[in-house]
Structures are given as structure tokens and as C-alpha cells.
Amino acid sequence: MQEGHPIAFESRKLNDTERRYTVQEKEMTAVVHCLQVWRHYLLSSPFSVKTDNVATSYFQTQKKLSPKQARWQDFLAEFDFTLEYKPGKGTVIADALSRKAELASISQAESTFLNRVWKGLGHDPTAKALVKLALEGKTLRFWVEDGILYTKGRRVYVPSYESLQRDIIRECHDTQ
């Protein structure tokens, strides 16, 4: 977070072995993963890692370590950071993406977004050309489904229409 706003999110799936970890080990797996991803930003400056798991906040002072935990501590020794406990109710922003109740409200806004995309497809010349190619079967990279243009990875093609692209970026990056 920077000035009270999240500036980046990182996630990945746990593999089969990691799914059997304790809650503290899962939390430390996430911390280690994020530090590996953002290592080049974090090595030269002090920072804090906030966790909603009390046991995780004591990881750096833990006496008995498993071999896995010893590897983690060895890696973490490169960084100048503190692990801080922050109760779950104080981590609303970070938890929002992992809580199904909050995601239910996000799915209601999806239809408005898709309606704007659908409308924009008719106004963007590039999108019109891609839709035509897809409907004629002349491209494998794009296809039309329910009036929406998709590309590889089942990603929605966002047309250049009014302020749609900017609005999507703002929605994904602003927290207010």
C-alpha cells in the first residue's frame, strides 16, 4: 500500500502439497512468494508485512523450525522488514478479493460492463473488423459469443469507445 491505497496485488494457486500446509505455513508461502516477485523493489528499503494471523507475526522469532521454515527464514534474512499482526477486520481491502460475499456484488456490475462493451463493439472500427472476421471463421484468435468479442484465454476484447478502457482501468486500480 502507498498513502493508504493498494498499488499492487499478487496471487497464485497453491499446489497439492501447499494445500496441506497449516494456516501459518500458507500465510508464509504467500509472504515468501510476494517477496520473490517484488524482490527488486524491496531489497534496498525497510518495509512492513501485515498479516491477520497472529502466529505468522511471530515467525521471525520462532525457535524451532522445520527445514522448510529454515529455508524461508534464510530467504527472509535478505530483507529489512517487520511482520505485524493486523486483525482481520482491519484488512478489508486485502481480503476483498478472497471473500465470496464481496465478489457477489462485483458480479452484479458485470452486466453493465458487458453492455458497454457490446455497445462499443458497434462503434470501434477495429472491433467491427475483428467481429466480421470471427463471424466468417477467418480467425482463430477471436470469436463472438453472446454478442461479445473474445480472444485467446477467454479474454473480453474491450473496444475503443467513449471512456470505456479508461473506466475499466480506473475500476480495477482505484479503491474509492
UniProtKB/TrEMBL annotation:
The keyword DNA repair does not apply. Residues 4-79 form the Reverse transcriptase RNase H-like domain. SUPFAM superfamilies: DNA/RNA polymerases. Keywords: Endonuclease, Hydrolase, Nuclease, Nucleotidyltransferase, RNA-directed DNA polymerase, Transferase. It comes from the Eukaryota. The keyword Transferase applies. This is Reverse transcriptase RNase H-like domain-containing protein. It comes from Cardamine amara subsp. amara.
